[in-house]
Amino acid sequence: MQPRGCCKSNTPSCDIKSLARPKRPCHKPGINKAQLWREDLGMLYKSLVSVAVCAIMVSGCSQTSQSDKQYAPSQTLDVQEPMASVLAPEGSEKYKPNEISPVRTVADTPVSTFAVDVDTGAYANVRRFLTRGQLPPRDAVRTEELVNYFRYDYPLPTDRSQPFSVTTDVAQTPWNSDTRLLRIGLRGYDLSYARRPAANLVFLIDVSGSMEDADKLPLVKTALSMLADNLQPQDKVGIVVYAGAAGVVLDPTSDPSEIKTALNQLSAGGSTAGGEGIELAYATARANFMKGGVNRIIIATDGDFNVGVTNQKQLEELITSNRDDGITLTTLGFGQGNFNDALMESMADLGNGNYAYIDSAMEAKKVLSEELSSTLFTIAKDVKIQVEFNPAYISQYRLIGYENRALAEQDFDNDKVDAGEIGAGHQVTALYEVVPAGSKGWSSERRYADNKRSAGGKQDGELAFVRLRYKLPDGDTSRLIERPVAATLLADAPAPRGDMAFVTAVAAFGQKLRGDTRLGDTNFADIRRLAGNPDGYWRQEFVKLTELAETKAPIKTAQLVD
């Protein structure tokens, strides 16, 4: 089988220009992923200025030799129903509005519920800004993704019937002597290279003109070539490209050399029609569906594409229906200037995949080689965490991060509410900052008797109760894990050290970049001292990033066009 010199396509596309999206308020509890997708796309692309009615497609194919063949998109078509473009205004990037989590009082809101998040895109994107001498936009910083970028010393699960272990511990808060930090850690079981199931992968690659920069399509080729080198004989990879037209440039194959040859022949040019490319990618995955295996679309783009032949609801239904049939979606973000982080995160979230931002060959190696099992192989889906605080021990709390993963309390027991996925070897960390009963809190006592609420509670030795719900990859009914958190952890809380010190430093770093006023006078030097002198490349790099934030970043702050 040889890579094709040009694509085949009978599919229309349309280039639609839009104004910058209006801001929407931060995520409200009780809204599931499908609702979020509708809300995100609707508000992201609502400010439609004009819709270009597309011309009849024109296609061409070079008659050069096999070694000189390159994909050159050249087709545009009509669109059935206009939809505002996701194309960012020139020189702008798009991020979801992301307000810092509020303080909750246990008397009023004793239960906190959220979906897990294993995405790491925000960390690599923050690194990209800092290495260029800029502070990242606040909405680009999702603290939970910074925290979950790193691995911690959580134990492996003892039994695969329960796909992850649960760890809880408590430490003193470095920036507030009146509060404590409660950590909840999950670790999924590891999956060896030899034991992982066969994979049916379709690379969906943006080859539009916006992808010509060195940190875009050239880096895409490097990244996906690394993944090809880690395939097993039973795995298959097909390649679909999209720009002015969508087409298959490589039918599914198990030969890494064919995959890399096809990748190397790609070139950027033309406008973008992402929707029709997604349709073709799903059709390719369906035609080669592996029962009992991993069936996944991996989309590589800067997110600067319009949705082409489909309207918003149709695109949502396309992703969710394929997800429900076992074809998931991972997004890999590339580049700068017109990068659409909001779309990348939303698509992966809706498609039960994960989102990573690739800013270097090192990051590509981490995501698509060293952590390939975590990236591709789901061991638990719709994972939700719920924490109920005992008012006898805790008076106030706040969850650090996970703002756009919040769920309503009643959503925890509702198996129809979609949540996050955990891959093989994945880890998830959540940090709560809590106020022990009797200590000074963030909010003062109310003046009028009728406005005061006594939390009450019984000192039964439990400061909190942790519940987790999850489904096995092929299951429809959730399973429940429950763990009490001993109150003795609160009374005996030590200063953070080791892993706890490092995770606290990363959380403080994210919150500092976001402008969290509850960090007090904590500065980047304090965060660096808390991180210590860690081992390993990635942790050492984090320490360097705190230096960049302290020295370079104040000189030049990234600006976005709203």
Name some characteristics of this structure.
six-stranded mixed β-sheet; Rossmann fold; 14 helices; 562 residues; disordered N terminus; disordered C terminus; Immunoglobulin-like; 2 domains
Question: In summary, what is this structure?
Answer:
The chain has a six-stranded mixed beta sheet with strand order 9-8-7-10-11-12, sandwiched between helices. A five-stranded antiparallel beta sheet has the order 3-14-16-6-5. Strands 4, 13, 15, 17 and 18 form a five-stranded antiparallel beta sheet that branches. It has helices spanning 33-44, 121-131, 143-147, 217-228, 256-264, 274-287, 312-324, 341-350, 361-370, 372-376, 488-491, 499-513, 524-531, 537-551, and strands at residues 16-18, 48-51, 104-105, 111-115, 164-172, 180-188, 199-206, 236-242, 246-253, 294-301, 327-333, 355-357, 378-389, 394-400, 420-423, 427-436, 462-471, 479-486.
Strand order of the largest sheet: 9-8-7-10-11-12
Helical residue percent band:
25-40%
Radius of gyration: 24 Å
Low-confidence stretches: 2-31, 36-91, 555-562
Q: What's the name of the CATH homologous superfamily of the largest domain?
A: Gamma-adaptin ear (GAE) domain
Number of separate strands: 18
Global morphology: globular
Classify the fold: give the CATH topology of the largest domain: Immunoglobulin-like
What number is the mean pLDDT? 82
N- to C-terminal distance: 47 Å
Q: Class of the largest domain, according to the CATH hierarchy? A: Mainly Beta
Number of helices: 14
The tally of domains stands at 2
Strand content: 15-25%
Largest sheet: 6 strands, mixed
Structure classification: alpha+beta
**CATH architecture heading of the largest domain:** Sandwich
Protein name: VWA domain-containing protein
Organism: Sphingomonas alpina
Domain VWFA: 200-376
Pfam families: VWA, vWF_A, YfbK_C
